[in-house]
Amino acid sequence: MLGSLARWLRILGYDTLYYVDRDDDELRAEALKTGRILVTRDSELVQRSIKNGTPALLIESAETLKQLREITDVYNLDVIPKNTRCPRCNGLLEPVEKTTLKEIVPEESYNVFDEFWRCVECEAVYWRGSHWVQILESLERLQGSNIL
Ligand SMILES: [Zn+2]
Question: Which of 16, 66, 79, 97 would you call most buried, defined as having the most Cβ atoms within 10 angstroms of its Cβ?
Answer without folding.
Answer: 16
